[in-house]
Write a structure and sequence with these properties.
This protein is α/β, with parallel strands linked by helices. Helices cover about 45% and strands about 15% of the residues. The chain has 16 helices and 15 strands. The strands form 4 sheets. Strands 3-11-10-9-6-4-5 form a 7-stranded mixed beta sheet, sandwiched between helices. Strands 1-2-13 form a 3-stranded mixed beta sheet. The radius of gyration is 22 Å and the shape is globular. The relative contact order is 0.16. The model has no long low-confidence stretch (mean pLDDT about 95).
Length: about 400
């Protein structure tokens, strides 16, 4: 039998979370992921909180590729990569991702959380140092914890603090600067041109997590480094197949050959996790082919994002500035954010209120996310719903 005192402690902690208005509730979706979705609690709604940036989660060509893979390559590999879990299509996808980013090779993971979790420990030890942005994703933080390298953290995008850390660690063998390409709660893009310049000055490596950038940020969708014109000067890029690139699962690290080869030998999430399923691999290959051939989807997303940001600003909402399709509507109070999201759901707009510990205390918000699949009418419908409820709840005048 479980320890009754432990179970009571867990129950008390859950009650405290609920009392603070911080409970995270999962809503049931009864349709495929797309702009128009059906929920068990609110019927048909417009989705404004998915990472489906390019609208590819229900794309017919992507689905057909996944179906064909089931016939050609089976359901799963039932193995890890180095035993008997590598098919020709895994290497094709890795090479396509590497070519897309201008890198030498790529290694696939079950998720980008695993890519980040398995990155630092194989490459660095106590002779080295990692310098990490304060707002980096939890997967970077956890990956760094597993590594014996000396750890330094600098305030978000603070280049003076980063330079100080680089100066203090000049005695170390290898220094690695780690940063999100896009900070997902704010939609801000890391100042990679400045980061790369500092890293080059102090002979350090740069690692970028581009989960909220791959496929749509930058002139051709090659991410935050392309956005800043430094794609050929970033050493390591990690990212996901589970957001803009079809919305399934899977992650990757793309870098120079020695980096990827060493990860294949020593990265524990890679060595001890099943290979990606063939249907996921083939669907991702189709996405990479589409994005390499045309920028139409990222161009549409850019247009939609500009329209929504401007309309929400004109309506009087406090939104984080920028040009990313993550558009945080700042409400600051956790209960208000949850209430606002519930009211929007009643009128057919599906969003989620974010509060501590996902964002800092006192920084609660509704993080809207725009898709290339949203129509102008749907964007306007969302703005009108936000405006009506914002007035009702006293958020705007």
């Amino acid at each position: 039998m479980p320890d009754p005192s432990a179970l009571q402690r867990f129950t008390d902690e859950l009650a405290a979370i609920e009392a603070d208005g911080l409970s995270k509730r999962e809503r049931l979706i009864t349709t495929p992921q797309r702009v128009n979705i059906a929920t068990d609690s609110a019927g048909e709604v417009l989705n404004f909180c998915a990472n489906n940036y390019l609208g590819l989660a229900d794309d017919p060509e992507v689905i057909d590729a996944a179906k064909q893979a089931l016939d050609d390559y089976g359901f799963g590999l039932a193995s890890v990569r180095f035993i008997c879990g590598t098919q020709t299509i895994h290497r094709q996808l890795e090479q396509a991702i590497a070519e897309f980013h201008g890198m030498q090779d790529t290694i696939l993971y079950a998720a980008c959380f695993d890519a980040n979790g398995g990155l630092f420990e194989p490459l660095l030890d106590d002779q080295d140092a990692i310098i990490s942005d304060q707002l980096n994703h939890a997967s970077i933080i956890d990956g760094i914890r597993l590594c014996k390298a000396e750890r330094h953290r600098y305030p978000n995008a603070d280049m003076d603090a980063l330079e100080d850390a680089l100066k203090k660690t000049q005695h170390k063998r290898t220094r690695l600067v780690a940063t999100d390409g896009v900070f997902s709660m704010d939609g801000t893009i890391a100042p990679l041109a400045d980061i790369v310049a500092l890293a080059e000055r102090y002979d350090a490596l740069v690692m970028v997590d581009d989960c909220h950038a791959t496929g749509f940020v930058g002139p051709t969708g090659r991410g935050s480094a392309e956005y800043h014109g430094v794609l050929d000067r970033v050493d390591i890029i990690t990212s996901t197949l589970g957001k803009a690139l079809g919305g399934g699962m899977g992650g990757f690290t793309t870098a120079a050959q020695p980096v990827v080869d060493l990860l294949r030998q020593r990265s524990r999430p890679y060595l001890f996790s099943n290979s990606l399923t063939p249907s996921l691999v083939m669907a991702s290959l189709k996405v990479m082919q589409r994005l390499s051939a045309s920028t139409a989807l990222r161009d549409q997303l850019e247009s939609n994002t500009h329209y929504f940001r401007q309309a929400m600003t004109d309506a009087g909402f406090d939104i984080k500035p920028g040009d990313h399709p993550i558009v945080p509507v700042m409400l600051y109070d956790a209960r208000l954010a949850q209430q606002f999201a519930d009211e929007l759901l009643k009128v057919g707009i599906y969003v989620i209120g974010f509060s501590y510990p996902v964002v800092p205390r006192g920084q609660a918000r509704i993080r809207t996310q725009i898709s290339a699949a949203h129509t102008p009418a749907q964007l306007q419908q969302a703005v009108e719903a936000f405006t009506d409820i914002g007035r009702k709840l006293g958020v705007i005048g």
